[in-house]
Inverse folding.
C-alpha cells in the first residue's frame, strides 16, 4: 500500500495539535526530554523509534494517563496539559492502545456501548453502529465475540470504535505490529480512509517501511529526544537518524 500519486496539501500555518517542550521521567529516570511535535489538520504523522525509546510513554502523556513533568500540550490551540484523561478525550483525542482492548462481548455490542455514551437517541446510535460495521468490513463479524477476533479484525473494530467520538486527533500505537503483510496492507487502507474523513493521525511503528508507506511526515525518537523529523525522504537522509536508528546499511 503506497500513497503513490496522492498529493494532499496541508495548511501549514495552523497546527491542530502541538507538543511543546514536553519532558517525562519515571522514578527519576528521564524517558522524554523537551519533545516538540506539531500536526496539521488532516495529516498522518509517524512516530518512529526503537523499542523502549518512549513512544507509548509519549502517548500516555498526551492522553493524560500520565502527567508531563514539564511542557505543554495544545489541541486546537487549547492547552489540555492539565486536563484529566476523560476531558482530553472529550476535547478530541482518540487513542488506540498497543494492547488489545475490547470488551468481552460481540462486535455489535462493543460499538453500541460506546455510541450509547456519546450519541443521543437509540435510532442514531444504531445507525452509527451499522455505518461503522459497513465501513470497517465488520458486518459478517457483528455477532462474534470480540475476544476471538484475529489481530487484523480486532484492530478494525478498535479503529471503528475510536471514530464514534469524532476525534480531531487519533493516536494509533503500533496498529500494524504482529500482523501478516496482507493484513498490514488492509490496516494501511483503513488508516488512509480515516485520514480521508478529515481526521489527523499520529502513528507509531518500529517497522519503518510500513509507516513510511502512509505517512506525510514523521519524527524519530532516540536518546530521549527527537533526533530527526520531516518527510520520509528527508528523514532517510538524516545522518543522526542513520547513526542512531536506521544503521548505515539500511536500504530505503
Ligand atoms: P516504546 O513504546 O517506545 O517501546 P515505552 O514508552 O513503552 O517505549 O517505554 C519507554 C521506557 O519507559 C522504557 O524503559 C519503559 O520501561 C519505561 N516505562 C514505561 N512506562 C513506565 C512506567 N509506568 N513506570 C516506569 N517506567 C516506565
Ligand atoms: Mg510502545
Amino acid at each position: 500500500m503506497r500513497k503513490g500519486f496522492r498529493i494532499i496539501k496541508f495548511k501549514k500555518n495552523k497546527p491542530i495539535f502541538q507538543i511543546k517542550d514536553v519532558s517525562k521521567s519515571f522514578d527519576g529516570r528521564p524517558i522524554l526530554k523537551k519533545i516538540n511535535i506539531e500536526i496539521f489538520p488532516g495529516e498522518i504523522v509517524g512516530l518512529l523509534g526503537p523499542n523502549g525509546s518512549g513512544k507509548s510513554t509519549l502517548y500516555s502523556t498526551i492522553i493524560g494517563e500520565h502527567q508531563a513533568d514539564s511542557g505543554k500540550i495544545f489541541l486546537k490551540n487549547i492547552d489540555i496539559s492539565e486536563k484529566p484523561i476523560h476531558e482530553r478525550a472529550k476535547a478530541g483525542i482518540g487513542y488506540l492502545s498497543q494492547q488489545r482492548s475490547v470488551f468481552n462481548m460481540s462486535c455489535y455490542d462493543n460499538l453500541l456501548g460506546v455510541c450509547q455514551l456519546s450519541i443521543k437517541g437509540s435510532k442514531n446510535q444504531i445507525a452509527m453502529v451499522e455505518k461503522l460495521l459497513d465501513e470497517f468490513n465488520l458486518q459478517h463479524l457483528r455477532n462474534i465475540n470480540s475476544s476471538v477476533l484475529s489481530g487484523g479484525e480486532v484492530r478494525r473494530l478498535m479503529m471503528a470504535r475510536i471514530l464514534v467520538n469524532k476525534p480531531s486527533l487519533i493516536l494509533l500505537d503500533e496498529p500494524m505490529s504482529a500482523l501478516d503483510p496482507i493484513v498490514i496492507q488492509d490496516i494501511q487502507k483503513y488508516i488512509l480512509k480515516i485520514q480521508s474523513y478529515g481526521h489527523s493521525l499520529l502513528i507509531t511503528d518500529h517497522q519503518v517501511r510500513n509507516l513510511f508507506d502512509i505517512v506525510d511526515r514523521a519524527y524519530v525518537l532516540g536518546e530521549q529526544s527527537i533526533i530527526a523529523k520531516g518527510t520520509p525522504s528527508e528523514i532517510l537522509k538524516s545522518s543522526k537518524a542513520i547513526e542512531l536508528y536506521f544503521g548505515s546499511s539500511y536500504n530505503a
Notes: Strands lie at 17-26, 29-39, 44-48, 70-75, 78-79, 93-96, 169-172, 200-205, 217-222, 225-230. The mean pLDDT is 93. The chain has two domains: 10-100+166-246, 103-148.
